[in-house]
UniProtKB/TrEMBL annotation:
Signal peptide: none annotated. It comes from Gomphillus americanus. InterPro entries: P-loop_NTPase, Therm_gnt_kin. One of its GO terms (cellular component) is cytoplasm. This is Gluconokinase. Its EC number is 2.7.1.12.
């Protein structure tokens, strides 16, 4: 007997699958189990990645284009953390813990500050899975909040060169290697809320792509919510 034909994945034909090289995801896996799709969502756009990947640059652009407030994660590091990084000493989990919680809560407060505010853009290296999980708690605490990570990625060599060329920043190029040592690239199990953005290319393309991804994400969520309201 001839075995049944197994349908082949069609993802390769979808341009989104090509442009999300790390963890392409299907639109059908959108809604998280903690999310009530009938509640209007406010969005945390967390721009992540190792030092020099362009978090601040991309976040400022998204904030301006989407008319959303922007919270710079580095402003929330205690002085001791900045001192360590300035001296070339990598932060530990313990150094990052309170910072992550404070930053997450500041982002949640910014969303709650106004009933018409629909989102906030935040920079946060969020290098490890457990750090991203700390931020995700915002959505568990408040089901009206959606957390999204834009994971900016490029080679260590590229980021080292960008940080070396940057002027007047506390983080030196020698620290980039330690950032990659800490980094846990978002894996398969995180594909629901992580959008991978390749930042090896020119800034204009990176910005346009990041904005396109955010708009697409908003469109998908709106569609899910609209459908849920039909039932
Ligand atoms: N796609 C790009 N192409 C070329 N240069 C870039 C690109 N993205 C960012 N840069 C430059 O690289 C440097 C690092 O960018 P930026 O400061 O935004 O990164 P960051 O992730 O916020 O860094 P940090 O975490 O160290 O604060 C800046 O000088 C910026 O202009
Ligand atoms: O977790 C960390 O090690 C820090 O957040 C760093 O990533 C820096 O603050 C940032 O990259 C500045 O260059």
């Amino acid at each position: 007997m001839t075995p049944p034909k197994i349908p082949q994945p069609t993802g390769a034909m979808n341009p989104l699958f090509i442009r999300r090289p790390l963890h392409p995801r299907s639109k059908s896996t959108r809604s998280s189990p903690v999310r009530n799709d009938k509640i209007p969502q406010k969005h945390m756009w967390i721009v992540t990645g190792p030092a020099g990947c362009g978090k601040s640059t991309v976040a400022a652009f998204l904030s301006q284009q989407l008319q959303l407030p922007y919270i710079e994660g580095d402003d929330y590091h205690p002085a001791l953390n900045k001192e360590k990084m300035t001296k070339g000493i990598p932060l530990t989990d313990a150094d990052r813990w309170d910072w992550l919680i404070t930053l997450r809560d500041a982002a949640a407060s910014a969303l709650q500050a106004s009933s018409t505010r629909t989102g906030v853009v935040v920079t946060c290296s969020a290098l490890k899975r457990k750090y991203r999980d700390v931020i995700r708690v915002a959505a568990y605490n408040n089901h009206g909040i959606s957390v999204h990570f834009l994971y900016l990625h490029a080679s260590e060599q590229t980021l080292m060169a960008r940080v070396a060329a940057r002027q007047g920043h506390f983080m030196g190029a020698a620290m980039v290697h330690s950032q990659f040592e800490s980094l846990e690239v978002p894996g398969e199990t995180e594909m629901k809320d992580v959008i991978a953005v390749d930042v090896n290319g020119p800034l204009s393309e990176v910005k346009a792509f990041a904005l396109e991804m955010v708009r697409e994400e908003l469109g998908v969520e709106e569609e899910v919510r609209r459908k849920s309201q039909e039932y």
